[in-house]
Task: inverse folding
DNA sequence: CGATGCCGTCAAGAAAGCGTCAAAGGTGAC
DNA sequence: GTCACCTTTGACGCTTTCTTGACGGCATCG
C-alpha cells in the first residue's frame, strides 16, 4: 500500500485529506508541524509527502530541505500564497508540485496519482546488492543471509549517498556536508568511524572491503 | 544538454518559451500541432515535453497517450482551461504537471527544473581517452584494459588541469599554482616527479609519451 | 668543444591519512 | 531515575603518499 504523510496545521484540511486519501486506498499518517513532520517521515518512510507551507514552527523550504536530505519521495506542496516567488522557492528547494488553496480535491488526488506513478511502479526494484547483503533504500531494509540487519539513521544517510552514486567517487567533504551538514568540513574521523561500521555490517570481509572502498585522501566509493 | 520539446500552436507562446528555455541552457525544439509533435518527439527523443492542450488537430489526451506509449519523459501540460475535470483527465492520461494560462514564466521554469531533476541524474559521465586508458573525471575512475588504475590525489589534480585544457599548453607556474597552491613557483621537480608517474600509469610507452607531452622550458600539454 | 640549463629517474626520510579500539556525552524509552 | 542506544571524541599503530635530494642524459648555446 502506498504510504502518504500529510503535514498540515489546520485540522479540517488534514482531516479532509486523510479521509479522501484513505478512501482511495492510501495509507495516511499526519503531523501538525514541521518538526513532528520530519520525525514522522523518518519513522514512516512515506512514498509521498503532502506538505502545507504555512506551518507554525518552521519555514516551508526548511522542511523540504530536511526531507530531501534523506528521502527522494515526491513532495506535494500546499499553500495559501499564490505568489510566483513562493512557488519557485519551494520547487527549487526540492518540491515536486505546488497547489494553491483553495484546491479541488479531485485535482489534488490526480496530482498525487501522477507523482506516485513515477516512483511507484517503476519496474526498477530499488534493492541493491552488496556482497551477500541486500539493501532496499526505499523500504530501509537490509537483509543478510535471511536475517535483518539494523542500521542507525546516520549509517543510512551515509550509505544512501554512496549507493545513489554507484561507481562514482564521493569526496569526503561532500559526504560530510550531505550527512552531517554544511558546517562539517574536516571531521574525517566521523567518516572513518561510520564507514567501518557499515563495512562490519555489510561486507563479507570487513578488513578487505570489496564494495565500500576507500580512496585515500579523496573520499569513498560504492562499487556494485 | 537537456532537450525540451515544445508543442504549441500559438507562435508567440512557442517563441517566448523557446527564448526563455534556450537562455537557461536547454536545447529546444518546437512543433505546431499534435501530429508533428509526436513525429518530432520520435526524432529528437526529448528529456521533457511542454504540451499545449489547445491543439487544432488532436485532443490533448491523445497526444499524451501517444507519447506515453514509448517515452517516460516528463510531460508538462499548458492549458487555457482551468476546469478540474480537464486537469484530472490530462494528469491521469500520463501528464506530470498542469499549468494554466496565463502563467508566470519563472514558475514554469521552476516546474521544468523540478521535473527534469527527477529523471535527470541517471546520466553518463564524460570519459576521456588517453591511449589505451580511459579517464572519467567526474567518477574519478581510470581504466586500462578492463582493470582499474589507482591515482593519488595529487596525480588526479594534475591530470585534471591538463585534461580540462585539451591541446593547450599549460605553463609550469600555472600547474604548480593550481595543484600545490600559490606559494609554489619554482618547484618544477614536483612536476617532473608526478608527470612521470602519470605517464607510467597512463601512457602505453612511458618513455615516449604520446598524450602527456613536455614542452621544454615552458610547461606540459595534453594531446587527445 | 665544454658549459649550462632542463628533464627524467631513482631512492630515501617526513608527513599525512586510514582503520581500529575505547570511552565519554546525549537522547529517548520505560 | 535508570537503562539502552546512538553519536561524538580521543588516541595509537600502520600504510600510503608527499616531499626532498641527488645523479645522469640530452639539447642548446657560448
Result:
Amino acid at each position: 500500500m502506498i504510504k502518504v504523510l500529510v503535514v498540515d496545521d489546520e485540522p479540517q484540511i488534514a482531516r479532509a485529506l486523510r479521509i479522501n486519501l484513505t478512501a482511495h486506498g492510501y495509507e495516511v499518517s499526519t503531523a501538525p508541524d514541521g518538526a513532528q513532520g520530519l520525525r514522522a517521515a523518518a519513522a514512516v518512510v512515506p512514498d509521498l509527502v503532502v506538505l502545507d507551507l504555512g506551518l507554525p514552527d518552521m519555514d516551508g523550504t526548511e522542511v523540504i530541505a530536511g526531507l530531501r536530505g534523506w528521502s527522494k519521495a515526491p513532495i506535494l506542496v500546499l499553500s495559501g500564497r499564490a505568489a510566483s516567488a513562493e512557488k519557485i522557492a519551494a520547487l527549487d528547494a526540492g518540491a515536486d508540485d505546488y497547489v494553491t488553496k483553495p484546491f479541488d480535491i479531485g485535482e489534488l488526488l490526480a496530482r498525487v496519482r501522477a507523482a506516485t506513478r513515477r516512483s511507484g511502479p517503476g519496474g526498477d526494484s530499488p534493492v541493491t546488492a552488496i556482497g551477500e547483503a541486500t539493501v532496499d533504500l526505499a523500504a530501509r531494509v537490509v537483509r543478510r543471509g535471511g536475517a535483518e540487519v539494523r542500521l542507525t539513521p546516520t549509517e543510512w544517510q551515509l550509505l544512501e549517498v554512496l549507493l545513489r552514486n554507484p561507481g562514482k567517487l564521493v569526496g569526503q567533504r561532500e559526504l560530510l556536508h550531505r550527512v552531517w551538514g554544511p558546517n562539517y568540513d574536516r571531521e574525517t574521523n566521523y567518516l572513518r568511524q561510520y564507514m567501518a561500521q557499515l563495512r562490519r555490517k555489510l561486507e563479507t570481509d570487513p578488513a578487505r572491503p570489496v564494495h565500500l572502498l576507500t580512496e585515500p585522501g579523496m573520499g569513498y566509493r560504492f562499487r556494485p
